[in-house]
Amino acid sequence: MAGLLRVIDSFNKWLTILLGVVLGVMSVVIIFQVLSRYILGIPLPWSEELARYLMAYSIFVGAALALRKQQLIAVEFISERLSFNPRRVLKIVINLTGIILFAILFIKGIEMMEKVSTQLSAAMQIPMSIPYASIPIGAVLLTINAIAVIIELLLSKEAVKEGEAA
Q1: Rounded distance, CA 87 to CA 153, Å?
Q2: Which ranges carry the Tripartite ATP-independent periplasmic transporters DctQ component domain (predicted)?
Q3: 127: β partners
Q4: Is residue 162 a part of any domain in this protein?
Q5: 54 in any annotated domain
Q6: pLDDT at position 159, please?
Q7: SS3 of residue 127 by DSSP
Q8: Is the pLDDT of residue 166 over 90?
Q9: In this predicted model, what pLDDT tens digit does every residue of 109-122 receive, in sequence order?
């Protein structure tokens, strides 16, 4: 299981680089759009659409990475009051529940992709299934990282310090 954890973390390093590139491209596109519209007086019809689609992908990739690092926003009122083993069990149950929700997200995302597969985006004229693919791709990434968190919780033997899992 530790080997699988290393593979997932190595994959996440590449995802982090990809996320940085996507956010960089999105920022450049938005800046270029603003300059083009307000300084040159020539709005770019494709730029807002591209930025929107890149944002959808970056949200899912970023959420998966945050899930792996356990940095998603959470209400930890109950878990903070538990000792190490009950807290670990609670976190495993929460992540298993998340995996069920990610499976539903994956299925519904595929259904949405099928519904919009014949449509083209207004400005870029790409199939709408490309932006909608961010949903099932994100669900897969979230599932992979939830599995990694569960593996890490199962491998942890004791708290590093009082109140935290290893």
Answers
A1: 10
A2: 26-154
A3: 120
A4: no
A5: yes
A6: 52
A7: strand
A8: no
A9: 999 999 999 999 99
- Cβ atoms of 81 and 125 within 8 Å: the answer is no
Residues 22-58 as b/e (b if ≥16 CB within 10 A, e otherwise) read: beeebeebbeebeeeeeeeeeebeebbbbbebbebbb
**Contact call for residues 42 and 36 (beta carbons, < 8 A):** yes
Give the distance between the most distant pair of CA atoms in the chain: 62
Any domain includes 165: no
The residue range of the domain holding 150 is 2-155
What would the pLDDT profile of 126-148 be if each residue is shown by its tens digit? 999 999 999 999 999 999 999 99
Q: What's the number of domains the chain is made of?
A: 1
Between 21 and 77, residue with greater pLDDT: 21
Please report, as a single letter, which amino acid is at residue 42: I
Is residue 163 one of the residues assigned to a domain?
no
- 14: enclosing H helix or E strand: helix 2-38
Confidence at residue 158, expressed as pLDDT on a 0 to 100 scale = 65
DSSP of 57-92, one letter per residue?
HHHHHHHHHHHHTT-S----TTGGGS-HHHHHHHHH
Residue 155 identity (one-letter amino acid): L
Q: Are 53 and 31 in contact (CB under 8 A)?
A: no
